[in-house]
Amino acid sequence: MKALVFHGPGHSSWDEVPDPAIKDPADVIIRVDAVTICGTDLHILKGDVPEVAPGTVLGHEAVGEVVEAGRDVHTVRPGDRVLASCISACGRCRYCRESRYGQCLGGGGWVLGHLIDGTQAEYVRLPFADLSVHPLPGALASEDAVLLADIFPTAYEVGVLNGRVRPGDTVVVVGAGPIGLASVAAAGLFSAGRVVAVDLAPSRLEDARRLGADAVANTAEDPEGLVGELTGGTGADVTIEAVGVPESFEMCTRMVRPGGHVANIGVHGRPAMLHLEDLWIKDLTLTTGLVDTFSTPTLLPLAQAGRLPLSELVTHRFALDRMEEAYGVFADPAGSGALKVVLEPAAA
Hints:
Helix content is about 25%, strand content about 25%. The chain has helices spanning about 40-45, 95, 130, 140-145, 150-160, 180-190, 200-210, 225-230, 245-255, 275-280, 295-305, 325-330, 335; strands at about 1-5, 10-15, 30-35, 60-70, 80-85, 125, 135, 170-175, 195-200, 215-220, 235-240, 255-265, 285, 315-320, 340-345. The strands form 3 sheets. Strands 3, 4, 5, 6, 7, 14 and 15 form a 7-stranded mixed β-sheet that branches. Strands 10-9-8-11-12-13 form a 6-stranded parallel β-sheet, with helices on both faces.
């Protein structure tokens, strides 16, 4: 089969590799029908994730059809169309018993495209299938469903739930990339009183308005002043960091009100300053986290009912064998306008 293989920092290619095989009775093999690319994949290619060994197939999000199932798999069978979660869960360890699957101690967590071969391929082996794949309703298109593998659970869990968004809250989302835009949409599920999106790119601010932001601010045009004006100088109830750079994190801590929540989603590659000399008195709650995907069973019926703006986030579509071209488009959002790219096998 063909797959996108990591060959070390700055190098990947669409290569011929061996077909995956069942290694554990809890595994399934799926034929990939739709995949997407994540910002984390770009971090891997930059060399920011040294645990990824050269020769690893990248990717951790997919929709596909089960073609083979191990003898201990009970929830799906060959022929079923399924969503492959970005997180695998053994179901037995302490953290899995607490639904904190991202911290799995039994061989799961974020392993796909990280510690084992991932989903950017024609076929993929998925471990711990009973907890880590989800049967899909026929009415949900594959290119929509694949966004439930990572970005929507991440925005919902690490952003909105960790931020404790409540009806009437003022929520500020810093970063209007795919995760930030999904956070804007997810905040609407909790009847936030006002959602403010902050970004450098005017096109992404327009996307944020389209997906439910009540106000937008360019990073270069005093978003802190706007938030102060909108809240009577109090500050936001919840700020969500969806960029992963020190400047945006520190901005979030400045814009939140006393007693508020700062929910960090962004993947940080550099240290950020925590100004405790200013923050110690503010009674803040600061959360971080890797997605657990415990919310997928909640999000699937919402998606089926049309309550999540899935297709609105897909800006580019490619045949699966154009993976390298798709990476180039996704890695240049300023030039391409890309939000999420979806790849599907070429029609026979």
